[in-house]
Amino acid sequence: MQSRQKNLTVVLEDIYDPHNAAAIWRTCEAYGVGKVCLIFDKQKPFNPKKIGKSSSATANKWLDFEIYRKTSDCLDTLKKQKFKIIATVLSKQAKNIYEFKWPEKVALLVGNEHSGLSEEAIRLSDYQVYIPMQGMVQSLNVSVATAIFLSEIYRSRLG
């Protein structure tokens, strides 16, 4: 637990599929994420500690969770803790993750599988980032995308 990155938090806004959430938690645990925030604004809440018994789901016992009903409540709390809110989006304002200078305290904001992040979440973010892709498909599964973002944050912190 000493290797936890207290300056790295993942925020999941309205994740629909608990299996995607469990896959994200396994990646978070692998990269030493200190905390996962779940926002259930439009989606039905689920308890992160009660998701299945698969190996992905058991990673939840090593993570701290905070659950919010409103996006603004979660992001305001993180900003008070001096986190920079980094929204994962495809937009003209978004920066390529491989060229982005990651701040010391990162709250990585990931959106719903179908609709992405809410307008409110994007508006409240400090920065926007995207994963550059070469193929015809311009989106990835939310758990795969989160793994790529966390891998790049980890790599950039190695020096």
TrEMBL record:
Matching InterPro entries: Alpha/beta_knot_MTases (IPR029028), SpoU_MeTrfase (IPR001537), TrmH (IPR033671), tRNA_m1G_MTases_N (IPR029026)
BP-aspect Gene Ontology terms: tRNA guanine ribose methylation
Domain tRNA/rRNA methyltransferase SpoU type: 8-150
Keywords: Methyltransferase, RNA-binding, S-adenosyl-L-methionine, Transferase, tRNA processing, tRNA-binding
GO MF annotation: an example: tRNA binding
Record bears the keyword Methyltransferase: yes
Name of the protein this chain belongs to: tRNA/rRNA methyltransferase SpoU type domain-containing protein
Organism from which the protein derives: Candidatus Roizmanbacteria bacterium RIFOXYA1_FULL_41_12
Taxonomic lineage of the native organism: Bacteria, Candidatus Roizmaniibacteriota
